[in-house]
Each structure stands twice: as C-alpha cells, then as structure tokens.
C-alpha cells in the first residue's frame, strides 16, 4: 500500500509542467500532506519561534508540528533548549500547548521529573536499577539565527543551513531580535494547503487589488510588471525606481548594512531569500501611514530610513524595520488547513501607550493576513474543483512561485517520492 501511494505521488510530481502551478492532488490529497510533513517539516530546517518567546529561565512554550510536539525553553543557566514533549516513561505529553513557566518538567501522569536541561532526576517506584541517564528527554537539533529559532527533526539535518546563517547573522545583528519582546501575536487558520499559503506570500501580483493597507508602504513596481505594457511615463518611472534601488543599496552597504539580494531557492535543501527593500511613502515602517509605530527603535538601531530587511523561508516570512519586526510562521494542520502565527516585535523596554501604539503597530499585517486567508481559501476551493488545471505563472510577477514549485518537486524526489 505504501509503495502504491508513493507511486501515486510520483505520478503527480511527474505531471507538473515547468512554469505552471502544481497538479491539484499536490495541494489537496491527504497522502501528499503526510509526505509533506515528513519531508518539509521533519527533514528540513523550519522556523518555529524566537529566542524572545522564552526570555527568562523557566519560560517555556510548546509548538506542535504534525504529530510532533516540541518544548522551547530557557534553562536555569539562561541557555536555550528545544526538547521533545514526550515523557520517557510511557510517552505522556509533559506540557500543554502554549506558554508556561516551569521550574522542572514534571509529567502529569506519573510525576517523572526532569531538569530544564532534559535530565531525568525523579522516577518514583522504578527501582534502584533504573539508569536515569538513559532516560533524559530527547533533544532536538536547533539553531538560533539572529534570534530566530530553526529546528530540524531529522538525525541528518541539511548542512546548507550555513548559507542562511552566514547571510542573516550580520543582517539581523543591529535589530537585536534576541532581546526584543513580543508585543502582539495572532494565530489565523487559513482554509487551504500550506503550499498555497507560501505561494500567496511569494508574489505581490495580487497586492494592488487586495491589500490597500500594505500598499501604503510597499512599492508598486516591486510587485513586478510586463515592460511591454508600460507607457513611456511609467517606463521612465520604473527606470528611476531601479536607479533609486541601486543608489540606496550602495549607500546602505557603505554604511555597514548588508542589503543586496541573497538567496538559495533551487538546487538546495534550505530555501530562503533576503533583501533590504525600500519602504514607500514616509519610508519608515509598515504601518497605516508608513511612519514608525514605536519611538523606541529595535536593538542598536538609530535610523528609521533603512527600509525593510525581508527574509523568507519555506515556512516563514519576516520583515525587520527600524522600529519593529514582523515574524510569520506557517504550520500545516491538515491538507486543507494551515496555521499562520504572526508576531510583532518591539524593543524589550518599549512601553505600550508610551513608546508605541498597538493598533498602529499591528493594523497593516492583521488586515493583510485576514485578506490573504480569504485568497488562500479561494485558491484551495478552486484546486478541489474538477475543472482545475495548472495555470501558467507570470514571467514577470511569479518567477519565485515557479522556483518554489521546482524546489518542492526536487525535494520530494530527493526523499523517495
């Protein structure tokens, strides 16, 4: 049965045409979803949280990925730990979903007790011959990259995470995300497949028609365009914009702020792209008027004119600005349901109502995420329709979708599908 299912998935992979969206079954089928969890959320590096989710010793938060439950915590010495949320006695969950504060990890079933390092210290009525050292909680491979926590559940994590690490440590350093704080968090469940969520995020072909709030701070020309359809005036405007990008990028980098595009999108395991983007209008932040939402800037930032340091991976997207940052993490729940967890970060000492206005801070991306949820639901409903057939990606606005689909197919095949 497993071989037949794998063969069926292989047929779907083979059916994908270059430059086109995926066959419907790759978005809708339950066996494909299970394969996706195994390949992309167990065997690849994924972003699951932030250092500042657990700022103090004893702080813990649980993140569930498919059937796997993880504990992110800060141990007594202030070190980060990521542990499997599975008691070594009979497998009970140790902690419930969400945030908590603990001094020990105590199993609610039979009170097996673990230090915050994962070491088993108490196992009542098990006899003197029980070797506690053999029953520590299982650790998870993780990297904290500029304050973003990436985990890999495989025993052989992809080594090319080094490319992401090398690019982002310097880029994120001025923002000091490790010492920021989460000012607000939302969990939105989209009624669609996780790949549709990621595809929707990787293009802004749809933005001008669907995201009026975001378009205040996003530059229209960055959405992509067909140069043959431009009027002479619009073509001149586009050329001026590209000159401005070149000028700004050189100036930012001369001031010590890496800004040019860096990416691993195909022929790789760890998929990411980063670039410092120009912010439109007032040019300071992704807010309703494009001005900073917080008067206390992040980390060591002293400038509000450094644009949007953008980073995406295959289950996340991030925007780092002088005054605040937005971190979105995507977690598949089923073939047709996807959790989008968005966090708004400010300086750890920023005070709501004094240094920042929460509504101004969150308005744009609350609206954008709700709008995207509707678009993803429409896309998934269309993929379920018998009339669906893969359509062509725009060669001007959706080239990154083509690369994502190509990467997806290649990685599925690399893992035996």
Automatic annotation (TrEMBL):
SUPFAM superfamilies: Bet v1-like, ISP domain. GO terms for molecular function: 2 iron, 2 sulfur cluster binding; iron ion binding; oxidoreductase activity. Residues 45-151 form the Rieske domain. It holds the Pfam family Rieske. Keywords: 2Fe-2S, Iron, Iron-sulfur, Metal-binding, Oxidoreductase. The keyword Iron applies. It comes from the Bacteria. The keyword Iron-sulfur applies. InterPro entries: Rieske_2Fe-2S, Rieske_2Fe-2S_sf, Ring_hydroxy_dOase_asu_C_dom, Rng_hydr_dOase-A. Its cofactor is Fe cation. This is Rieske (2Fe-2S) domain-containing protein. It comes from Rhizobium grahamii CCGE 502.
């Amino acid at each position: 049965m497993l071989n037949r299912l794998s063969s069926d998935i292989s047929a779907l992979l083979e059916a994908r045409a270059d430059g086109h969206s995926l066959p419907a079954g790759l978005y809708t089928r339950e066996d494909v979803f299970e394969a996706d969890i195994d390949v992309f959320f167990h065997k690849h590096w994924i972003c699951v949280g932030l250092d500042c989710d657990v700022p103090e010793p004893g702080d813990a938060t649980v993140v569930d990925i498919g059937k796997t439950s993880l504990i992110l915590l800060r141990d007594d010495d202030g070190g980060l730990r990521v542990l499997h949320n599975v008691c070594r006695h009979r497998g009970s969950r140790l902690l419930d979903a969400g945030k908590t504060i603990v001094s020990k990890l105590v199993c609610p079933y039979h009170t097996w007790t673990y230090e915050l390092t994962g070491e088993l210290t108490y196992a009542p009525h098990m006899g003197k011959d029980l070797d506690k050292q053999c029953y520590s909680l299982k650790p998870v491979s993780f990297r904290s990259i500029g304050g973003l926590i990436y985990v890999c559940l495989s025993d052989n994590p992809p080594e090319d995470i080094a490319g992401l690490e090398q690019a982002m440590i310097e880029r994120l350093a001025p923002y000091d995300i490790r010492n920021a704080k989460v000012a607000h968090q939302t969990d939105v469940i989209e009624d669609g497949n996780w790949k549709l969520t990621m595809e929707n995020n990787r293009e802004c072909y749809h933005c001008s028609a669907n995201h009026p709030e975001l378009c205040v701070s996003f530059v229209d020309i960055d959405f992509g365009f067909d140069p043959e359809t431009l009027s002479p005036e619009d073509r001149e405007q586009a050329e001026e914009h590209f000159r401005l990008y070149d000028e700004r990028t050189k100036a930012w980098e001369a001031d010590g702020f890496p800004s040019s595009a860096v990416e691993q999108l195909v022929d790789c395991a760890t998929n990411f792209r980063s670039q410092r983007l120009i912010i439109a209008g007032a040019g300071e932040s992704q807010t309703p008027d494009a001005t900073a939402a917080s008067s206390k800037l992040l980390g060591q930032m002293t400038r509000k004119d450094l644009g949007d340091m953008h980073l995406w991976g295959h289950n996340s997207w991030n925007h780092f600005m002088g005054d605040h940052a937005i971190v979105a993490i995507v977690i598949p729940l089923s073939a047709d349901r996807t959790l989008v967890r968005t966090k708004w970060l400010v300086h750890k000492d920023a005070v709501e109502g004094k240094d920042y206005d929460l509504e101004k801070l969150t308005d744009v991306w609350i609206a954008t995420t709700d709008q995207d949820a509707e678009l993803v639901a429409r896309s998934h409903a269309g993929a379920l329709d018998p009339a669906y057939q893969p359509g062509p990606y725009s060669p001007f606005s959706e080239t990154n979708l083509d690369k994502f689909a190509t990467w997806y197919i290649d990685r599925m095949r690399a893992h035996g599908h």
